[in-house]
Amino acid sequence: MTNIKVRFAPSPTGFMHIGNTRTAVFNWLLAKKLGGNFMLRIDDTDVARSKPEYEEAIRDILNWLGLKWSEEARQSARMERYNEVVAKLKAEGRVYACYETAEELEVMRKKLMTKGLPPIYDRSALKLTPEQISAYEKEGRKPHYRFKLVPGVIEWDDMVRGHCRYDASNLADPVIIREDGSYLYHLPSVIDDSDFGITHIIRGEDHVTNTAAQIQMFEALGTPVPTFAHLPLLTGKEGKLSKRLGSLGVRELRAEGIEAMAISSFLAKLGTSESIEPFYDLDSLSASLDLHKLGRSQPKFDESELKIFNTKYVRNLPYEKVKDRIKSDEKFWNAVRGNLNIVSDIEEWEKICHQNLVPIIEDKTLTDIAADLLPEEPWNDETFNLWMNDVKSKSGKKGKELFHPIRKALTAQENGPELKTLLPLIGREKALKRLKGTEA
After folding, report:
1. Half-sphere exposure of 223 (CA within 13 A, CB side)
2. Which of 46, 47, 138, 150 is nearest to 99 (CA)?
3. Dist CA 85 CA 93 (whole Å)
4. Which one of 19, 165, 181, 251 is least enclosed by Cβ atoms within 10 Å?
5. Which CATH number covers residue 420?
6. How many CB atoms lie within 10 A of CB 331?
7. Are residues 47 and 89 in the same domain?
């Protein structure tokens, strides 16, 4: 297939959360895998709730994640186009005006459900006489508009769910324009996807029923129907849909030191038959994408698991990926990364190795012996072991009784990188002062 194009279409009515970030990741990865383009479409038809700061934050997070887009549009700039299409569909009888109030529609819905029937709109608006319409308008009622579905089976092959089939007679005609003239999601999205040549749409499974209706909208416009993939929605660790997931901001995760590629790697493999392993660039992650490996069950997202995964990611992170973000050289990074949870933790080890600290002396006799036997520089990979063998022989200490007091004297820490790795980074002058209990 040629001219592949996908889109991410966020509404700037809030900050990016983990759910829509997952959607963005999957769309970008699919575009990359298929050699296509990734488009950003700002769905800002909700004028009251759309805010510039949310839009700016969306762009910021996409850029931070590396999800670059090659084309952009915003729905608020395309109202004339939507109105043009609606006028055509009205003339063809596919869009019609309705005058029921929200309260009247709710009464109709409850009556149907009481009878055990699906709450499908009965199209009573199509039976209104000109006199009835005029009377409603004199009351001050303004119409909302629905898209008229035609009878028949609606089906498609979903890249995640497999073959999907709906009977249009079991679906309500979707409302596409509110009483105030503002557009709902359905039709503008189809018009945009049609006009911009979107070939693949990845979105949450909560859109599946929308897809059935939108397929008929594509057909009414006379344009090709895109290929769909509906992702199972994330659930919380307790196994239910979680409000927390709808607000868990990627900005907050970023501020806590979670790596962009750790987030993308985690979200791309969560809920698949594959193990969740770190990927260190988007190209290799996209090459591994296989939507058929996504399960149908809703995957559980646990923020604490992401943080554990991030630690694994950081501890295997190549120096090339961090060299522009840290002060230390490759030798230092490789020495301490196995003890980092986030990249910025390296700053603590830089202080421990390079700045003055107050050593903790637990066994002064031992540390005095260690100080007396500390070899002259230059040191190599064997220096520490040879030194410890000498200290062990003279002190009679071994195991934890030997190493733990030496560690606390040299670093003032209970744990950390191997001392044989740290010792050359600290250097003989500081090591000697610390072993003698003076600040260094």
Report:
1. 17
2. 138
3. 12
4. 165
5. 1.10.10.350
6. 12
7. no
pLDDT > 80? residue 2: no
**What are the pLDDT digits (tens) for 42-93?**
999 888 889 999 999 999 999 999 999 999 999 999 999 999 999 999 999 9
Residue 418 belongs to some domain of the structure: yes
The first and second tokens of residue 183, run together, are: 């557009």
Q: What is the pLDDT of residue 430?
A: 96
How many distinct structural domains can be found in the chain?
4
Is 26 inside any structural domain? yes
1: pLDDT strictly greater than 50: no
Residue 336 belongs to a domain = no
What pLDDT is attached to residue 45? 87
Q: Which of 382, 380, 395 is nearest to 435 (CA)?
A: 395
Q: Which two tokens stand for residue 274?
A: 């594959």
Measured CA to CA, the distance from residue 107 to residue 119 in angstroms comes to: 10
Are residues 84 and 148 part of one domain? Answer: yes
pLDDT at 241 over 80: no
The first and second tokens of residue 6, run together, are 């996908």
On whether both 48 and 117 belong to a single domain, the answer is: no
Residue 35 CA: distances (Å) to CA of 48, 91, 145, 287 = 37, 40, 39, 11
| Helices assigned H by DSSP within 66-129 | 79-91, 102-114
Mean pLDDT for all residues in the chain: 94
Same domain, 16 and 41: yes
pLDDT at 48: 85
